[in-house]
Amino acid sequence: MQKRFMAIWFRHLTTDWLTLRRPELKDMPFVFAAPERNRIIITAANPLAEAQGVYRGMAAADAKAITTNLQVLDHLPGKEAKLLRQLGLWCVRYTPTVSVDLPDGLILDISGCTHLWGDERGYLKEIINKLRTSGYDARAAIADTIGTAWAIARYGKTTPIIESGMQAQAILNLPPVALRLEPLVLEKLQKLGFNTVKSFMLIHRSTLRRRFGEGFLLRLAQALGLEDEIIKPLIPPVPYTERLPCMESVRTAKAIEIAIQKLLEGLCARLQAEGKGVRKATLKCYRIDGKMVQTGISTNRGSHSPSHLFKLFELQVSKIEPALGIELFLLEAPKVEDVDTTQEKLWAGNPGLQDTALAELLDRIATKVGPERIRRYLPAERYWPERSIKPAASLSETPATKWRTDRPRPLRLLRRPERVEVMALLPDYPPKVFTYKGRRHMVEKADGPERIEREWWRDKGEHRDYYAVEDADGGRYWLFRLGHYDAAPEWYLHGFFA
Amino acid sequence: MPDTKRELISQLQKNILQWEGYKSPPAGTRELVGLGPVEAAFPNGVFPLGTVHELVCSNTEQATACGGFVTGLLSVLMQNGGACLWIGLSGNLFPSALKAFGVEPDRVIFITLSKDKDVLWAMEEALKCAGLAAVIGELREMDFKQSRRLQLAVEQSQVTGFVLRNQSNKMSSTACAARWQIKPLPGESVDGLPGLGFPRWQVELLRVRNGQPGNWIVEWSDGKFKPIEKQAFQQQKLLVG
Fold first, then answer.
1. Quick check: helix, strand or coil at residue B29?
2. Which A-chain residues 397-426 have CB contacts (< 8 A) with chain B?
3. Terminus of chain A with fewer CB atoms < 10 Å: N or C?
4. Are residues A18 and A137 in the same domain?
5. Within a domain: B223
6. CA dihedral of residues A227, A229, A230, A231 (deg, nearest 10)
7. What pTM value is reported for the model?
8. Is residue A382 one of the residues assigned to a domain?
9. Do B64 and A404 touch (CB under 8 A)?
10. Could you tell me how far CA B50 lies from the centroid of its own chain?
11. Could you tell me which chain A residue has the CA closest to the CA of B100?
12. What is the maximum alpha-carbon separation in chain A?
């Protein structure tokens, strides 16, 4: 069967998207711009800006000079690819083979699909109308080859549908840029006065190859259908979900457990085959009274072990309210990650934090009491005691700097320093007596002061002068005086040494 | 004659220990954690690992001393790269200070809970996890049944557990291998210089299963425990006083 392709061109892809996101920009000329060689160059302009003579590749300063109220926004790198992927996945409803054509188009292999919408004209109209009503300014063309469809979508002036075998006639009057050529070749063609495809199509191949290279001939042959062109189709992601409809509604905890087990077996079999593990999973229970109850779990590290995931769900079963009965279970894994299977080692040392059993244990505890209660700390490069540690993001994160041991730090640090009444013999001397929670402590030995300045760029206030003191009973405390020694210095107890 | 009798008795004691499930340590095992005379109080003269220890403390100063003592023990238990779990109610432990007791603070996972019940549950789950070097739980009350659950978990996994009982009113009996009380003592200034000396504690073994209770003075210096002889301590006290 003759292949047929459709090329869609989005004339204002990113600007259309932003207009949809921010409707207030609809009646305003705006452009995206990015710095390039110390100049701010426009990367995309909306129709209103284009109407005022602004075009892609222009310096933003020039554009501002010729327009009255131009908005210049930062270019979003990679946005086109993301948008095209989304639009491409939407187009999968029209054909199974959709490919992204960066920077501003889509290629659809529509062979054998168009009769479902009547004919090619109806098919094309359907897609373009849908895209235009959703806010994207799109143009499309259908031809035997990708090259011709691409050229007609962008530069065609008459009909968007090229009959089978008519590629050569269709592109005759188009400019050479319609052949997807490299800028250098285009420049050469322009210098030599080749303004249309017609003017060089009949020149001998060897001459063209010598002048413009193999790539030029390939593009020409691809447009005419003499060479095949391969596209890379988008593969829509299959969500990780499992369904379990029940013949009879389920009400007991045991039955729910069995349902969870069945769902997990199915899900984990797929995850294992793909080398993935669940980070987050939700169980949705559809009840016969029309309501839906759901519960979720999350793990520290991707897991595809049914027994472990079941243990996590087991803790949640009591929270599921079956009411009159549950008729459908739906298990979804919205967040999965790659799991690296580790080889078992003989004489392996203690795995420490990388132990799978430890990760599973923490998952269980987190499911029961909440993940915010589990913390591991890394050193932060700061002197202010409360900020000298920071929570680690994951179990595998290692400290970037060493733990400091050069200054004494108390084993127990109070969350908030507590006021104490103090008597010091001389200014800047350690205290002689202090009263904490109604008890007087006679200080026998003391170390200090260690002055710790406040981080002035974060908060205002006085510095702290820390003293480590020991009372007659051997209790060791970390006291500080806020600010300098003046009329009424404030003293605080901040920690206990071992 | 008395010599043979003593031999007989010690042989019998060894047999009883074996029957009760205490494996005699491999020959040459001495001082697992460097506590010297304290370790001699335990059956077979070895600090029992793979069991639950209970430390009682009545105020924050003592709780901190207990924390320091346990951290010192951890430094030995975590020597070969293990991780440990510190489950507590207060959450005021300062990780930076652990380094001074020879423990890498980033290998300790802190879990802060609000109820004794939750701490005991988390501790039991953790003690079943054989990959851990140790599990520390800070709580207020623990009855015999709960302590036995912990002991049963430990017998499977051989993890060492420490229960820090803070400000508990009742001293009920528990199934723990030992009950300790650690109190801070005034430190000795180094070479007569002013300032605080090394952390020093009065380590009291209130109850030991099949061992000898007693009390000792231990100091933490140069990254290890240093038992102080009582006489020396008394003399020093006299000199100072």
1. coil
2. 398-399, 403-405, 408-415
3. N
4. yes
5. no
6. -170
7. 0.67
8. no
9. no
10. 12
11. A405
12. 106
